[in-house]
Amino acid sequence: MSASWRPGLPPVHERKDNPFKHWKIGPDDWRNREKWDQYLEAAEEMLAETDVPESPWHLIAAKSKHYARMATTRIVAETLEKAVNGKKK
Fold this sequence. Notes:
Blueprint: H1 9-17, H2 27-34, H3 36-50, H4 65-84
């Protein structure tokens, strides 16, 4: 699953300022945001080096839990259907 923090940054600041939600964010969250570009570069390299026809990566936007779950279910169902029918991607 892939989630972008940049569009989600305002809610992070809202969590920081909301006494009922500030426990959800800590120093690691801020440190990780500073290194986001490095994480993204490492993820892209890993995907490029490990994506193979027998075991492909599927990037799924995870901003919406409903969409992510539906997309994951669709990919799993399609993969199983191909395996049952003896087809390769």
